[in-house]
TrEMBL record:
This is SAM-dependent methyltransferase. The keyword Magnesium does not apply. GO terms for biological process: methylation. GO terms for molecular function: methyltransferase activity. It comes from the Bacteria. The keyword Methyltransferase applies. Keywords: Methyltransferase, Transferase. It comes from Streptomyces kunmingensis. Residues 95-115 are annotated as: Disordered.
Amino acid sequence: MTPTLVRRHLPHAAPAPRVDLCARARDWSEIQERMLVPVYEAVYERLEVGSGTRLLGLDCGSGLALLMAASRGAAVTGVEPTEPERLALARDRLLPPEGERRGPGAARLTDGGEDGITVAVPDEPPYNLITAFQPIGCMAGDSAGLSTLLESVAPLAERGAYVVLVGWGPPERCTSSSVLRVATKLADPLRSTGSWRPALRDDLEEVAQRAGLRPDGSGRVACPFGYADAESAVRGLLSTGLFDAAVGATDLAQVDKEVTEALQPYVRSDGTVWMPNVFRYLIARTP
């Protein structure tokens, strides 16, 4: 296989959030990322991810899903073009210390760059699993560009390879929806992207169809958001980036205050926060 550059197509970006990006990446890695572990486990179990798996993870964040796949014996490549602070944490998790030799099955991580994202190298077999675990379906425009990206990486996979997309479940099954509405209330009402919206039934299918993929199964997974206290919950939720437009339109203190207030119905007597949610995944196949 010859080296391949895949260009990253992104929706119109919100203004840069006025937050400490390194701290936010740590909050994602230490607090929020684990909330999606049930989805990763369900997908890997269903697809029997193991030593024969060559996985390409799109928007891999700080690499927890890749680490779980690698622990099953999979060869993993992660692409994180928009969150360099998360990618640095993924490298700490997955790559050997500087100076140590990398084995043939070592993870590969890349942030791409102006010329695109290098995700394939010569003399290696094609991928047989592509994952896009970053959930879509709760913000206007959050799927923009994903179909184009999937269409671009499909040639790197073998024929009939699995492609997994993940989205938020119905609002009535996601108690976090009431908190995410704060993002819409505070964000610029004229902005077409970056505001919360109810997840739609066919969000994932529409992305797959635009990318030329063939749906081949789906599932729902309970992913409760549980936090040690309200402060941790605020830090975890803000680390998702779903409130960036709200922070840009107001300020971090205002968003922090209103999210804290919205969390009150989910604070239990011992001070912990518990919000049951359901996420949905779609399994598709490359042409």
